[in-house]
Amino acid sequence: MQLGQYSVPACLHDGSPVNDTEVYATGWGTTESKQSTIPDILQKVVLERFSDDECQARYNRLSIRNMPQGYDRNTQICYGHRNMNKDSCKGDSGGPLQIKHPEIKCMYLVTGIVSNGKWCAIPGIPSINTRVASYLDWIESIVWP
Protein backbone atom coordinates (compact mmCIF):
# COMPACT_ATOMS: atom_id res chain seq x y z
CA MET A 1 0.00 0.00 0.00
CA GLN A 2 1.25 3.44 -0.88
CA LEU A 3 0.88 6.30 1.55
CA GLY A 4 -0.83 9.43 0.26
CA GLN A 5 -3.58 11.94 0.93
CA TYR A 6 -6.11 9.22 1.76
CA SER A 7 -3.74 6.62 3.21
CA VAL A 8 -1.63 7.66 6.18
CA PRO A 9 -0.15 5.79 9.16
CA ALA A 10 -1.76 5.93 12.57
CA CYS A 11 -0.34 5.60 16.06
CA LEU A 12 -1.89 3.63 18.91
CA HIS A 13 -2.95 5.56 21.99
CA ASP A 14 -0.79 4.80 25.03
CA GLY A 15 -3.17 6.21 27.63
CA SER A 16 -1.57 9.64 27.89
CA PRO A 17 -4.00 12.58 28.18
CA VAL A 18 -5.60 13.51 24.85
CA ASN A 19 -8.68 15.40 23.76
CA ASP A 20 -10.98 12.61 22.63
CA THR A 21 -14.29 14.38 23.16
CA GLU A 22 -14.84 13.82 19.44
CA VAL A 23 -13.46 10.94 17.38
CA TYR A 24 -13.65 9.82 13.78
CA ALA A 25 -15.17 6.39 13.20
CA THR A 26 -14.63 4.82 9.80
CA GLY A 27 -16.06 1.64 8.42
CA TRP A 28 -18.02 -0.32 5.85
CA GLY A 29 -21.00 -1.00 8.11
CA THR A 30 -24.64 -0.22 7.57
CA THR A 31 -25.76 3.35 8.02
CA GLU A 32 -29.06 2.61 9.79
CA SER A 33 -30.01 0.22 12.58
CA LYS A 34 -32.30 -2.12 10.66
CA GLN A 35 -30.59 -1.79 7.29
CA SER A 36 -29.01 -4.83 5.66
CA THR A 37 -27.20 -3.28 2.69
CA ILE A 38 -23.65 -2.05 3.13
CA PRO A 39 -22.22 1.05 1.44
CA ASP A 40 -19.89 0.92 -1.58
CA ILE A 41 -17.81 3.77 -0.17
CA LEU A 42 -15.92 3.83 3.13
CA GLN A 43 -17.99 5.83 5.62
CA LYS A 44 -16.70 8.35 8.18
CA VAL A 45 -18.59 9.93 11.04
CA VAL A 46 -17.63 12.24 13.90
CA LEU A 47 -18.84 10.89 17.25
CA GLU A 48 -19.12 12.45 20.70
CA ARG A 49 -17.70 10.89 23.83
CA PHE A 50 -20.14 9.99 26.57
CA SER A 51 -18.86 10.09 30.14
CA ASP A 52 -18.06 6.91 32.04
CA ASP A 53 -20.97 7.68 34.38
CA GLU A 54 -23.37 7.98 31.41
CA CYS A 55 -22.14 4.67 30.04
CA GLN A 56 -22.33 2.99 33.42
CA ALA A 57 -25.94 4.14 33.81
CA ARG A 58 -26.88 3.06 30.27
CA TYR A 59 -25.10 -0.31 30.34
CA ASN A 60 -25.52 -1.57 33.87
CA ARG A 61 -25.27 -5.27 34.69
CA LEU A 62 -28.93 -5.93 34.04
CA SER A 63 -29.15 -4.46 30.55
CA ILE A 64 -26.66 -6.47 28.46
CA ARG A 65 -26.71 -10.26 28.48
CA ASN A 66 -23.19 -10.54 27.02
CA MET A 67 -21.76 -8.12 29.57
CA PRO A 68 -22.59 -9.65 32.95
CA GLN A 69 -20.23 -7.24 34.75
CA GLY A 70 -21.70 -4.20 32.98
CA TYR A 71 -19.67 -1.35 31.52
CA ASP A 72 -15.95 -1.40 32.40
CA ARG A 73 -14.49 2.11 32.41
CA ASN A 74 -10.94 0.69 32.36
CA THR A 75 -11.27 -1.22 29.09
CA GLN A 76 -14.29 0.36 27.40
CA ILE A 77 -15.36 3.79 26.21
CA CYS A 78 -18.67 5.06 24.83
CA TYR A 79 -19.27 7.18 21.74
CA GLY A 80 -22.35 8.18 19.82
CA HIS A 81 -24.22 11.41 19.30
CA ARG A 82 -26.50 13.19 21.71
CA ASN A 83 -28.70 14.96 19.14
CA MET A 84 -28.21 13.33 15.73
CA ASN A 85 -28.51 9.87 14.14
CA LYS A 86 -24.73 9.37 14.01
CA ASP A 87 -22.99 6.22 15.22
CA SER A 88 -20.97 3.18 14.27
CA CYS A 89 -23.26 0.35 13.20
CA LYS A 90 -23.52 -3.29 12.13
CA GLY A 91 -20.41 -4.18 10.12
CA ASP A 92 -18.16 -1.50 11.64
CA SER A 93 -16.93 -3.66 14.53
CA GLY A 94 -13.15 -3.93 14.65
CA GLY A 95 -12.69 -0.59 12.91
CA PRO A 96 -10.83 2.38 14.36
CA LEU A 97 -11.93 5.31 16.46
CA GLN A 98 -9.32 7.98 15.98
CA ILE A 99 -8.39 11.59 16.54
CA LYS A 100 -5.93 13.81 14.74
CA HIS A 101 -2.55 13.19 16.34
CA PRO A 102 -1.90 15.98 18.85
CA GLU A 103 1.81 16.23 17.98
CA ILE A 104 2.38 14.84 14.46
CA LYS A 105 0.69 16.72 11.64
CA CYS A 106 -1.13 14.58 9.05
CA MET A 107 -1.27 11.52 11.32
CA TYR A 108 -3.99 9.98 13.42
CA LEU A 109 -4.08 8.40 16.86
CA VAL A 110 -6.26 5.31 17.29
CA THR A 111 -7.90 5.64 20.69
CA GLY A 112 -10.58 2.98 20.37
CA ILE A 113 -11.93 0.03 18.41
CA VAL A 114 -15.59 -0.19 17.44
CA SER A 115 -17.18 -2.96 19.46
CA ASN A 116 -20.93 -3.14 20.06
CA GLY A 117 -24.18 -1.49 20.95
CA LYS A 118 -27.73 -2.54 21.44
CA TRP A 119 -28.89 -0.34 18.55
CA CYS A 120 -27.13 2.20 16.39
CA ALA A 121 -27.64 5.79 15.36
CA ILE A 122 -30.20 6.61 18.03
CA PRO A 123 -29.56 10.06 19.52
CA GLY A 124 -28.44 9.91 23.13
CA ILE A 125 -27.67 6.17 23.12
CA PRO A 126 -23.92 5.54 22.80
CA SER A 127 -22.16 2.42 21.56
CA ILE A 128 -19.54 0.60 23.61
CA ASN A 129 -16.01 0.52 22.23
CA THR A 130 -12.68 -0.92 23.30
CA ARG A 131 -10.02 1.40 24.77
CA VAL A 132 -6.82 0.77 22.81
CA ALA A 133 -4.55 1.91 25.66
CA SER A 134 -5.86 -0.90 27.87
CA TYR A 135 -4.62 -3.50 25.40
CA LEU A 136 -1.50 -1.77 24.05
CA ASP A 137 0.95 -4.23 25.65
CA TRP A 138 -0.97 -7.19 24.22
CA ILE A 139 -1.28 -5.59 20.76
CA GLU A 140 2.43 -4.85 20.64
CA SER A 141 3.29 -8.37 21.79
CA ILE A 142 1.42 -9.70 18.76
CA VAL A 143 2.66 -7.13 16.24
CA TRP A 144 6.27 -7.03 17.47
CA PRO A 145 6.86 -10.41 19.21
Features:
disulfide bond, 10% helix, 145 residues, Ser/Thr_Proteases_Immune/Dev, mainly beta, 7 strands, glycoprotein
Strand order, biggest sheet? 2-3-4-7-6-5
Number of strands: 7
Residues in β-strands, percent: 25-35%
Shape: globular
Low-pLDDT parts are none
Overall radius of gyration: 15 Å
Q: Taking all residues together, what is the mean pLDDT?
A: 89
User: What is the count of helical runs?
Assistant: 2
Level of helix content? Answer: 10-25%
Question: Structural class given helices, strands, pairing?
Answer: mainly beta
Overview of the molecule:
- The protein is mainly beta.
- It has helices spanning 52-58, 136-143, and strands spanning 10-12, 22-27, 43-50, 76-80, 96-100, 108-116, 127-131.
- Strands 2-3-4-7-6-5 form a six-stranded antiparallel β-barrel.
- The two termini are 23 Å apart.
Task: Lay out the secondary structure.
Blueprint: E1 10-12, E2 22-27, E3 43-50, H1 52-58, E4 76-80, E5 96-100, E6 108-116, E7 127-131, H2 136-143
Parallel strand pairs: 1-6
Antiparallel strand pairs: 2-3, 2-5, 3-4, 4-7, 5-6, 6-7
